[in-house]
Write a structure and sequence with these properties.
The protein is an alpha/beta fold.
């Protein structure tokens, strides 16, 4: 995924970059400052960017004028406009000029921005490459995927998508995660990690870990067939007022999932609400092992090479240190706090500031009504791994004894 931010305000560019990289940690985020670099050439077609985030105004020029030039040249790269002093008339003008979405510049919320970006990307590439898998009709049979019929796309991007399909014999619904290997796109590493993801999850058989049915590789794409988790993600439930017993139950189920993958010698490394999905019976399952590593290979190498989502990242992971299961336990502690309070324990205007807070800020305190859970929270969110719960068994024992 590749984004381009056009704005003269370096601080605001940093804020937008932060929002994007929290949700798409491996995305390439390019920045363009018109005040120093000048206006883009009239024949600019978006380069290799999947989406442009464009400010308005840009010094003496309107961002709207930049947008109109892009559209006049036939560029179909999605554009989201961020206006300094927005109003509904400007919003209408932006949409008419070809923007996919519009935000008042200083009223951008993370979830709203992420939803707008996803919608814009899907609008640009609605089933653009599914013909390779499903034939000319998106409602056709999945080619080579064992008698499965396409139902709809659940999520998509330029190189990876998730599709819902129905087994033509049994009627069972499955989710197919498909990755393309696009030449010269940097997708080779994604392709290799995709295959590693299957090998990792296939070793684990646990009700709180997503069930994997099949792996396929053909020509320039690979797929994982997995159970369809129909009741949405934990990300859709945090932020509400959850009963403490519910928060504790969800935390226990996630801890059970971590215990299972840790027992198989695997760290998740990207534990967050979006990677916890629900079945219709309200049991949950851990998904998305794309960043997972075997414990013996968990040291992060390379200068500044940090993987994961900063909101939920342990201090040692944020600083590129050696990782063990205590890092996943820290991430679970962040989720536990968010389930109890509806808020994240640490927030900041940049990923680096957030990483600093995880390491150095005072540990969050629960309100008096939730004081019974402070001990467990402290043991999960200790900045020093030596002071943290050492295994998920310790977390589960605390919950069971409550």
């Amino acid at each position: 995924m590749q984004f381009l931010i056009i704005d003269n305000d370096a601080e605001y560019r940093s804020v937008l970059r932060y929002h994007l990289q929290v949700e798409w940690p491996e995305a390439i985020v390019n920045e363009y400052e018109p005040a120093t670099a000048g206006r883009l050439p009239d024949d600019f077609r978006g380069g290799n960017n999947d989406l442009i985030l464009l400010a308005d105004p840009l010094d003496e020029e309107r961002g709207l004028d930049w947008l109109r030039r892009l559209r006049a040249g036939g560029n179909d790269v999605p554009v989201i406009l961020f206006a300094e002093n927005g109003d509904e008339f400007l919003a209408v003008e932006a949409i008419k000029a070809g923007a996919e979405n519009y935000f008042p510049k200083h009223r951008v919320k993370h979830q709203g921005l992420v939803a707008a970006v996803r919608a814009a990307l899907d609008q640009r590439d609605p089933l653009a490459w599914t013909g390779e898998l499903f034939g000319d009709s998106a409602s056709g049979a999945l080619k080579g995927l064992g008698g499965h019929r396409f139902v709809r796309r659940l999520h998509g991007g330029a190189m990876a998508s998730i599709f819902l399909a129905e087994n033509e014999s049994s009627g069972e619904l499955l989710a197919f995660k498909v990755v393309r290997q696009v030449p010269d796109s940097g997708a080779e590493r994604l392709f290799d990690r995709f295959l590693q993801e299957y090998e990792i999850i296939a070793r684990v058989d646990h009700p709180n870990v997503v069930r994997i049915m099949d792996l396929g590789v053909a020509d320039d794409h690979a797929y994982i067939a997995m159970e369809y988790l129909a009741a949405g993600s934990l990300a859709e439930r945090v932020g509400r007022e959850l009963h403490p017993d519910t928060a504790l139950e969800y935390t226990a189920q996630i801890a059970q999932a971590l215990k299972a993958i840790h027992g198989a010698g695997v760290l998740h490394r990207d534990l967050k609400p979006a990677n916890v999905m629900f079945r219709e019976d309200d049991t949950l399952a851990l998904i998305d092992f794309g960043l997972a590593k075997e414990m013996r290979q968990a040291q992060i190498t390379g200068t500044g090479q940090i993987f994961g989502t900063p909101y939920y990242m342990s201090p040692e992971q944020g600083h590129g240190g050696d990782l063990d299961e205590r890092s996943d336990i820290y991430s679970l502690g962040v989720i536990f706090y968010e389930l109890l309070t509806g808020q994240r324990p640490f927030v900041a205007s940049s990923p680096f500031a957030l990483i600093y807070q995880h390491s150095h800020a005072e540990r969050p305190r629960l309100p008096d009504s939730l004081a019974d859970y402070q001990d467990l929270l402290d043991r999960m969110l200790a900045a020093d791994p030596a002071e943290r719960c050492q295994t998920t068994d310790e977390v589960l024992q605390w919950i069971e004894q409550r």
